[in-house]
Amino acid sequence: MKYVHRIWGDPKTELGVGVWAPSDWRMVKLSTFEAQFTSPNKLWLLRVNGIVTDELPLETAANKKLAVLHGTPGFKLISRATGTTKATSEVFTGMTFRHTTLTYTYTDPTRGTRLVVDRFVVIGGSPGAGFEISTAGRPEDLAGLNAITTKATENYFRLP
Fold first, then answer.
1. What does the pLDDT read at residue 133?
2. 14 touches 45 (CB < 8 A)
3. How far apart are CA 157 and CA 160, in angstroms?
């Protein structure tokens, strides 16, 4: 898979976000700091929320998400993992991002079982999650979804 920098934001204020995203995926800007990318076959999705407004501690952010998901049809938590990713963007040179990643499935009424990799990430010494990256696809797509999540995490940047 080939990746390109995808940048979005508010040109009036020069605020924005960027990540590595698959080059042939269609981007839809959801807000100044949030975008969604869809694969050409519409089976895979990447969503980036460049600024988590409440900046909750990783554990709290993950627990809050899980509380919402428990009411979702067919919800099953596959894994909950903490880890780190070395930042590769010039904006965060030398930093290591800390994160909690939830991997789960749920039942979509039209597409069947869907797999989601949802990552809450802390920037530097911040006490709470600064951004969120989610990928979604079919259960058999786990390796690919993990790779896309990692690529988007390592090269995340915020402007200015």
1. 98
2. no
3. 9
